[in-house]
Design brief:
- There is one protein chain.
- The protein has about 300 residues and is an alpha/beta fold.
- The strands form two sheets. Strands 1, 5, 6, 7, 8 and 9 form a six-stranded mixed beta sheet that branches. A six-stranded mixed beta sheet has the order 2-4-3-10-11-12, sandwiched between helices.
């Protein structure tokens, strides 16, 4: 078994939720904004509720729209930004050596978007990837690939790495080359399990997740005033960078009283590490399901 972590120190592990992304990659993080509920929906199930969205700015619109449609007032407070990798060289080298891979695996829409960006910059098409067996973490990632003419052969029923591994294990043959273009500094599980199955795994950084700190002062103001009803997290990185905006004393003061909505168990686990107990989590780890779970949580409650 072989694990080739292309990209060197950029691949240090970090906790990460393998949840599905939905939108394009943001070039730069905007300042925190407050989006009121849409007119005419004051009677929605989230009317009068203030919900914080920590998702990367360019990925947030779908989530914000769903929450507003239910009557919520949304505080857009991105805690992460998705940026290109420090170097494109590992991804370029992997693309140039595609003939040596049997599988290409995408674990987020961000990975697809950044692959497309780099292929376009180099004047290349998706034909090389499309000729391989392709797996995706979930339907949104598969849809993003389909938009580039790539047919996804395998999508797990549960949208996280553990389920993807279970689907892939019977398909992997000893010596199979597996290309994994994804975020730098991502948890090791997928790489380790595929290698244990006999695959030659080449993991390359397609993008990086950076913290956004501009939102801290207004979040402090909202937390101090007790005006936040729910804080939402859609990946472990959103949790981690939210928590790290605050001192230990501030975490002890505010975090125990927060109602937290996490997209899935990996994200909820990271939240727990920071003293944030998840009260809301959907059965399906997608943005629409998370919005519905928040609605269900407040259904029938009067403000």
């Amino acid at each position: 078994m072989t694990i080739d972590r292309a990209g060197g120190p950029d691949m240090a592990p970090r906790p990460s939720s393998c949840c599905v992304g939905t939108d394009a990659v943001p070039p730069n993080p905007p300042a925190l904004g407050h989006a009121p509920a849409k007119p005419g929906r004051a009677s929605g199930s989230l009317a009068g509720r203030t919900i914080v969205v920590t998702r990367a700015a360019a990925q947030a619109p779908q989530f914000v729209t769903l929450l507003q449609a239910a009557g919520a007032s949304v505080v857009e407070a991105p805690t992460i930004a998705i940026v290109p990798p420090t170097s494109w060289a590992p991804l370029d080298a992997a693309v140039d050596a595609l003939e040596g891979f049997r599988w290409v695996i995408f674990t987020s829409v961000n990975g697809v978007a950044m692959m497309d960006r780099r292929l376009s910059e180099r004047g290349l098409s998706w034909s090389g990837v499309a000729a391989k067996r392709v797996a995706a973490i979930g339907p949104a990632t598969a849809d993003a690939l389909a938009a580039h003419g790539v047919r996804t052969e395998l999508v797990p029923g549960e949208y996280r790495a553990e389920a993807l591994i279970e689907r892939l294990r019977p398909e992997i043959r000893p010596g199979d080359g597996v290309l994994l273009p994804r975020a730098a500094k991502t948890r090791d599980l997928l790489v380790r399990e595929l290698a244990d199955a006999g695959a030659r795994v080449v993991e390359v950084p397609a993008y990086e997740t950076h913290p956004v700190t501009e939102t801290a002062s207004r979040l402090r103001e909202a937390l101090t005033g007790g005006t936040i009803d729910v804080v939402t997290f859609t990946s472990s990185s959103t949790v981690r960078h939210f928590a790290e905006l605050f001192s230990d004393a501030e975490r002890r003061r505010w975090f125990p009283a927060l109602t937290v909505a996490s997209i899935g168990p990996i994200t909820a686990g990271t939240a727990r590490e920071y003293g944030l107990a998840t009260a809301i989590m959907p059965a399906e780890y997608t943005i629409p399901a998370l919005a519905r779970a928040i609605e269900d949580h407040f259904a029938g409650r009067s403000r």
